[in-house]
């Protein structure tokens, strides 16, 4: 008996050691407090690295913001993975710091304040800087930065999730969603497809994928230019267009004028000419950022050594500063057997992007058939990924309509428009640009809550047509009461004295 007991202990020991190691990793990732953070925030934070390819030395940086303690059913709140696009832009710099995260950075680049409309009021938020070479994520194999593409980004993100759930086993089997914006319109459905297929090959899969959401108008170019674009660009990858396509896109950019294409009615913080020049990347339609006045604060904050220490970031001593999209890298040039260190400033990840499928629609068809919850939404002042383009893409799916195009309401005012299809919901947000939660944070949180609950966006129910109400069995005419509609509720106020007798 003693021998059997000893054998069982010997077999169980490696499992116990592994669990202790994972628990230690999790606790070492705990963020005690960020520099400049408000006191008593009411939620826990974790940040650090998860290896995705040991042979190449690739590791992705994450930041987990748990659901606020005040959130309803916080103990069972879902996990939402957030991905920014680019390709090559930081989910920490944009998603966490400008859009859905719990903190905003003040103009001093040192202090933070709370975002009242953070999505961690409803879910646990997992921000991932992906692929390697973006933000704090890194690879010890330089070639990785020149060969990144859609396929490897999805594979690395999946490897990250598998390892992350081992580090945070309390979130296994919890409802899991993926959300993102812009070029994450590739990342999000591709990762969802990979998880769905891997889950079908696995008994009792731990990633309980329930659905995903992402967002990508206005007549800003001439009809001639529009037809030229259709003729030269429509069947091409956005990352690898032809010379003729680029020529017509440059014409379209010139016709738009000096506007901020990410929010066409918003006054930029600096001179519009310099702003547009700084936003335009290799191609005028693939600009990287919204407003340098907001991203500038992030660039200052996340380069403070004490901030990086608090986030357990840059532990390998990366030799370039953190940035929202751009990457600084160091090379050694060999000239006549003499080696010279040289520093370059280039968006390597975006410039050398390897694969970028022209259409995501086949993936959508597969995942719609699988029954995943899919919501797509757009800010209606975004000219980079406009509402019209999104609607054309959805129309190509030829889905039957369940709820026709209609306005949705926030406090009695139109918050945007929506249409519900079989397998997909499309929502617009009035007055929002490319980064919807930045421009319309309250409406974005309403949208997010309805997505998690799988409820159509709130429609206005008019009570003003009521001529009478029944109270305690007595019918009162409209002369006795007034009606106020607020927060999707009807508030009846008596304007005359009413007496009831038994």
TrEMBL record:
Keywords: Carboxypeptidase, Disulfide bond, Glycoprotein, Hydrolase, Protease, Secreted, Signal, Zymogen. Its EC number is 3.4.16.-. GO terms for molecular function: serine-type carboxypeptidase activity. It is an enzyme of class 3 (hydrolase). It catalyses: Preferential release of a C-terminal arginine or lysine residue. It is found in: Secreted. InterPro entries: AB_hydrolase_fold, Peptidase_S10, Ser_caboxypep_his_AS, Ser_caboxypep_ser_AS. Residues 1-23 form the signal peptide. It holds the Pfam family Peptidase_S10. Belongs to the peptidase S10 family. Carboxypeptidase II is a dimer, where each monomer is composed of two chains linked by a disulfide bond. This is Carboxypeptidase. It comes from Ananas comosus (Pineapple).
């Amino acid at each position: 008996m003693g021998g059997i007991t000893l054998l069982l202990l010997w077999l169980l020991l490696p499992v116990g050691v592994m669990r202790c190691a994972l628990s230690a990793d999790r606790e070492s990732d705990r963020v005690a407090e960020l520099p400049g953070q408000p006191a008593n925030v009411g939620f826990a934070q974790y940040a650090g690295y998860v290896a995705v390819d040991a042979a190449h030395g690739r590791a992705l940086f994450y930041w987990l913001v748990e659901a606020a303690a005040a959130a309803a059913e916080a103990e069972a709140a879902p996990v939402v993975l957030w991905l920014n696009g680019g390709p090559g832009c930081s989910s920490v710099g944009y998603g966490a710091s400008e859009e859905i995260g719990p903190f905003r950075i003040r103009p001093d680049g040192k202090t933070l304040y709370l975002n009242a409309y953070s999505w961690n009021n409803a879910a646990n938020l997992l921000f991932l800087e992906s692929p390697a070479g973006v933000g704090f994520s890194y690879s010890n194999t330089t070639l990785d930065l020149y060969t990144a593409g859609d396929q490897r980004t999805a594979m690395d993100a999946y490897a990250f999730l598998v390892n992350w759930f081992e580090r945070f086993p309390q979130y296994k089997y919890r409802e899991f969603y993926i959300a993102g914006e812009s070029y994450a319109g590739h990342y999000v459905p591709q990762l969802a497809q990979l998880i769905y297929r891997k889950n079908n090959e696995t008994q009792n899969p731990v990633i309980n994928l329930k659905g995903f959401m992402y967002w990508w108008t206005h007549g800003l170019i001439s009809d001639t230019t529009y037809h030229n674009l259709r003729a030269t660009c429509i069947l091409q990858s956005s990352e690898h267009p032809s010379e003729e396509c680029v020529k017509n896109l440059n014409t379209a950019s010139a016709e738009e004028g000096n506007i901020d294409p990410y929010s066409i009615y918003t006054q930029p913080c600096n001179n519009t000419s310099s702003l547009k020049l700084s936003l335009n990347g290799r191609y005028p339609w693939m600009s990287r950022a919204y407003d340098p006045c907001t991203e500038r604060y992030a660039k200052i904050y996340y380069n403070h050594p004490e901030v990086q220490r608090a986030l357990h970031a840059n532990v390998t001593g990366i030799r370039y500063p953190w940035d929202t999209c751009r990457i600084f890298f160091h090379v050694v040039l060999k000239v006549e057997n003499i080696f010279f260190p040289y520093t370059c400033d280039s968006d390597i990840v975006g410039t050398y992007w390897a694969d970028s499928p022209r259409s995501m629609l086949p993936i959508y068809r597969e995942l719609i058939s699988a029954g995943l919850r899919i919501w797509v939404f757009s800010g209606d002042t975004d000219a980079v990924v406009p509402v019209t383009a999104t609607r054309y893409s959805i129309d190509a799916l030829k889905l039957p309509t369940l709820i026709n195009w209609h306005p949705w309401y926030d406090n009695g005012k139109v918050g945007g428009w929506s249409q519900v299809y079989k397998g997909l919901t499309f929502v617009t947000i009035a007055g929002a640009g490319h980064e919807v939660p930045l421009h319309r944070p309250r409406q974005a949180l309403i949208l997010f809550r309805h997505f998690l609950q799988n409820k159509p966006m709130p429609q206005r129910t008019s009570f003003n047509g009521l001529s009478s109400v029944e109270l305690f069995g007595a019918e009162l005419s409209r002369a006795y009461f007034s009606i106020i509609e607020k927060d999707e509720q009807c508030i009846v106020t008596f304007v005359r004295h009413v007496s009831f007798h038994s």
